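User: Teach me something about this protein's shape.
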Amino acid sequence: MTTFTAFEPEVLDGFRDAVGREHVIESPLEVFGYSYDASFLALDRNTMPQAVVRPRTTAEISRVMALAHERRIPVTPRGAASGRTGGSVPLQGGIVLSLDRMTSILELDTANMMVSAEPGVRTVDLHDHCARHGLFFPPDPGSWKFSTLGGNVAENAGGMRAVKYGVTRDYVMGLEVVLADGSILETGGKAVKNVTGYDLTGLFVGSEGTLGIVSRALFRLRPLPKARGVLRVVFRTMDEACAAVQEMLLDGVTPSAAEIMDATCLEAVARARNTQVEEGAGACLILEIDGDGPEALEAQSRRIEAITDRTGRIAFRSAASREETEAIWAERRGLSSAVAAMAPNRLGEDISVPRSAFPEVVRRINAISASSGLPIPVFGHAGDGNLHPSVLCDLADPDQAARAHRAVDGIFQAALDLGGTLSGEHGIGITKRPYFADAVGPVSLETHRAVKRALDPLGLLNPGKIW
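Assistant: First, the predicted structure itself:
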């Protein structure tokens, strides 16, 4: 049973002085909502924070961190809590530092094609704000309608356009970070070339809130593509679909997105949308292409049609209207929930392998599914080797739960055996922590720990995560 221990009155008063009385949440009923995230972990420990503190400015974060450092209080940063690995779950009580009030886009610098924003800004809002000025912020995690920039930076979030445009790290030019003791660090800037000192900006991207609190981020932008098109291509096998993506890239055709779904995913989507799967369909690619105008899109589409014809497609469809485009993308955007509806529980994982190993890791996952007796639908980003296998099970059944966790072990081992890694975009958090040492090796593990000791010697920032 979860227990709750309140702070001493003078500690709460200190946090209230820092951010305002109304922005410190202390009642057990209210703080419970900050004890979990989208990972749906079966938590068997006390993950209740003792209070939730909601700063509005960098100065307020600094005051909160100084007090937490003085009192040795653990601090768990939190954005939209859309993470899949338990990264914003407060394992050691203390405070949850919620950045949901920091929602300002501070500056759009069109001359330098850069934008500065606070960590609570939603990804979609930044994208739309820049698009209105003809500029493009490419990172688009699947949860982009509610994920926030601070979380994207903390997890180095990827998304569907990573094959052509990269991930969050590729767009971060500078950061304002509040360190564990309340100090405020400025990194990077608007200079495109900057090799002055260590890459401190890169150090904090992907650090999962364990090294500092991002209070502002500066992102570079691209010109907004003038035209976009969407293609839906169906194949008999995953091997054929993967081969098609490889052929495109080798032929110099780089789609802005190359999403892949296996047969089980297609069946799940068809059931959810009350549609039919094409006869003989074993895999599907949803491709987005972009360019300078309709002629550029038509040229790319013709080349992709020829390539996929050589690699064995059985259906090819090019969206002819906005409605058709939205309908095709709705298949992919709704895929996660459609798959989740197939079983009481879904262990949704995130592995990344070299592109050439994509077909082989899918074969190994299929073998794990057969040996475990559990369905494991596979979808992901075929263009960059990032897969999302979902182990479907009933965790209330001890036998199924044991088989599911063994299947997850096998999936991670398959990725490592093929030269891949534990995560392409979700991070390590809690769920992948047991595998981290094997994935990085002893020297890298000690280097991580040395960096942590240097920046957070008391171990107060997001404790219990990564290792």
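Now, about its shape. The chain has four domains: 9-101, 105-223, 227-337, 343-429. The longest strand covers residues 227-235. If you'd like, I can walk through any region in more detail.
User: That's plenty for now, thanks!
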